[in-house]
Amino acid sequence: MDRVLIDRGTIARRVEALGTTIAADLTAELGGPEAAALSSGRIVFIPILTGAVVFVADLIRHIPFKLSLGVVAVSSYPGKSMESKGAAIRGEMPRNLEGKHVVIVDDILDSGRTLGLIRDVVMEQNPASIRIAVLLSKRVDRARDVRADYVGFEIDDEFVVGFGLDYDGYYRNLPDIATLRASAL
Ligand code: IMP
Ligand code: MG
Q1: So what's the pLDDT on residue 181?
Q2: Closest ligand 1 atom to 87 CA
Q3: Residue of minimum CA distance from atom 12 in ligand 1
């Protein structure tokens, strides 16, 4: 580890604020509080495994609706790599998203390949709406033009771990987000 970039308290407060905003937007999308109470079963959160597990677990507990979770696994950093090598879906995509209000959730938006891919395959199923929520967004030139509707924190182009983010499969359990330098490995 190099240094703590975003501590756990700051993350918790930001995740709560994001959840509140997403809930308000979904309420509006569904036609107001009463309509939302009746039709919120059409909300599906799709966390991208494995990095999004910590974020989505905290986020959905701030969304007071009847919603479901449909996971999708994507691999983009094979082995001991800090550079995205493209994205590929591993296993099944959630089905029956037609007419659903989908919120795709990931730990970080970097090159945009992962979220671009998932957004495309969700779109093919004709959902009623699609939103993208990420805990972190890197200030980089993206390989794919993907914009997140909800961003926890904008960060510089550094490799980070913790709160779900890994290096070679490790460090996901760190409660804070920390930078990791190649020289520190
Ligand atoms: P993208 O496809 O390049 O946008 O990368 C997104 C995926 O790469 C995320 O789902 C992360 O799992 C991973 N990733 C990108 N940057 C970092 C980082 O700084 N630390 C750990 N994982 C990262
Ligand atoms: Mg990852």
Answers
A1: 79
A2: 2
A3: 51
Arithmetic mean of pLDDT over the chain = 93
The 3-state DSSP class for residue 163 equals coil
Q: What is the pLDDT of residues 24-54, one digit of tens each?
A: 999 999 999 998 888 889 999 999 999 999 9
The confidence score (pLDDT) of residue 85 equals 72
For residue 182, the 8-state DSSP code is: G
Q: CB under 8 Å to 66, separation ≥6 — which residues?
A: 40, 41, 43
- The residue whose two tokens read 């994001």 is 18
Q: Distance from the CA of 165 to the center of ligand 1, in angstroms?
A: 8
106, 107, 110, 176: the catalytic one is 110
Strands 177-179 and 4-6: antiparallel
Question: For 160, how many CA atoms within 13 A lie in the half-sphere containing its CB?
Answer: 28
Give yes or no: 110 in active site.
yes
Residue 78 pLDDT exceeds 80: no
Atom of ligand 1 nearest to the CA of 86: 2
In CATH terms, the fold of domain 8-25+40-75+96-155 is Rossmann fold (3.40.50)
Which residue's alpha carbon is at the smallest distance from atom 9 of ligand 1? 108
